[in-house]
Write a structure and sequence with these properties.
- Chain A: It is found in: Secreted.
- Chain A: It comes from Catharus fuscescens (Veery).
- Chain A: Keywords: Cytokine, Disulfide bond, Secreted, Signal.
- Chain A: Belongs to the IL-10 family.
- The structure holds two protein chains of two kinds.
- Chain A is mostly helical.
- Helices cover about 65% and strands about 0% of the residues of chain A.
- Chain B has one helix and 16 strands.
- Classes of the chains: A mainly alpha, B mainly beta.
- Chains A and B meet through helix 1 and helix 3 of A and helix 1 and strand 4 of B.
């Protein structure tokens, strides 16, 4: 089967674009990447795409957004908007996995392990801010692989 | 202190065409200007951020009894909103919306449109309803109701070409608004009909 999830990419993209510069300015470590090290998401096989998307959405909901609270009300509101959109989408993807339409292959499992290792290699606030700052990498990959 | 200042009452959300407003009744204190502050909470905040609430800066210490929460109700999850009164250093208890609000609960009105015949061309102009909207436009030659055609468009406030009409024939148009984010549509607008320009060639 296949897994089709409706989500408002334009709304998420608009929310992120509004705070991207602010978030990325809080990430001092420019030489490291959470999502793209050592390999880009674009290298993943199409069959693994659904699984890694679900894993990444769950990763952002469980680990990232809660450590990104700032002193800026506008930024916090946009983060909330993205977080709630991710929660809504990850729920739908979860249903796909329950119906076995979103199988996890070896590649996506390996890739997600690497992302978690990159994340846990930094202190939690830096890791969370860096991950949030890389959201456009995820959004670009999702839109290219639609 | 706080006990003197009652929480705002009659708190409700008015939502039409994906524009969401929180309203409440004023707290009346003779000779004083009471101000209000509004906060929101999405499902993410309830389940992953310790039930935290997020202030809406445009509605912090406002004297209005209305707050535009459209920018913050921006995901398809259940939200709660709350408002309290403030007078000097006194704060009232929070008044919170009854139940949850999901943007899919918004009421959708039919689009406003203007149908034009420009010579043989059937044109339509749709009023802007906001970034979330697209329009399903149905059009047909009068008398041929079984051969309805459809055009989906996001174009607003400018003329959209629907069809080239037969000389002198009458064509009818109606449209509905659709919001992909909530997968819902409005009812159809009233039907509007126009007549194509007659044939100007003369048989001699």
């Amino acid at each position: 089967g296949s897994c089709r999830v409706s989500m408002s990419m334009a709304e998420i993209r608009a929310g992120f674009t509004a705070i991207k510069a602010n978030i990325q300015s809080r990430d001092p470590i420019r030489t490291l990447s959470i999502l793209s090290h050592p390999h880009s998401l674009h290298k993943l096989k199409p069959s693994d795409r659904c699984c890694i998307t679900h894993q990444l959405f769950t990763f952002y909901v469980d680990k990232v957004f809660k450590h990104c609270r700032t002193e800026d009300s506008f930024v916090n509101r946009k983060i909330s908007s993205i977080a709630n959109s991710f929660l809504s989408a990850s729920r739908k993807l979860g249903q796909c996995r329950e119906q076995n339409n979103c199988v996890c292959g070896e590649e996506s499992t390996e890739k997600f392990k690497q992302i978690l290792a990159n994340y846990e290699g930094l202190n939690v606030t830096s890791a969370a801010m860096k991950s949030l700052g890389e959201l456009d990498i995820l959004l670009d990959w999702m839109e290219k692989s639609r | 202190g706080d006990a003197l200042l009652p929480a705002p009452q009659s708190i409700s959300i008015l939502s039409t065409n994906m524009k969401h407003f929180l309203t409440w009744s004023p707290v009346i204190i003779q000779g004083a200007t009471v101000r209000y502050s509004v906060e929101f909470q999405g499902e993410y905040e309830r389940e992953y951020a310790n039930g935290s609430w997020i202030p809406i800066s445009e509605c912090s210490l406002t004297t209005a009894t209305l707050c535009n929460v459209t920018q913050d109700i921006s995901a398809s999850v259940p939200y709660r909103l709350r408002v309290r009164a403030e007078l000097g250093s006194a704060r009232s208890p929070w008044g919170t919306t009854e139940g949850f609000f999901t943007r899919a609960m918004t009421s959708l009105t039919p689009p406003q449109l203007r149908v034009l015949a420009d010579g043989h061309h059937l044109l339509v102009e749709l009023a802007d309803m906001g970034p979330s909207f697209q329009f399903h436009v149905l059009y047909w030659k009068k008398g041929q109701e079984s051969r309805v055609q459809q055009k989906v468009t996001r174009e607003v406030s400018s003329v959209v070409h629907l069809d080239t009409m037969e000389a002198g024939a009458e064509y009818c148009v109606k449209a509905q608004a659709h919001v992909e984010a909530i997968n819902r549509s409005s009812s159809f607008s009233p039907t509007q009909c126009v007549r194509a320009q007659g044939d100007t060639s003369l048989w001699l």
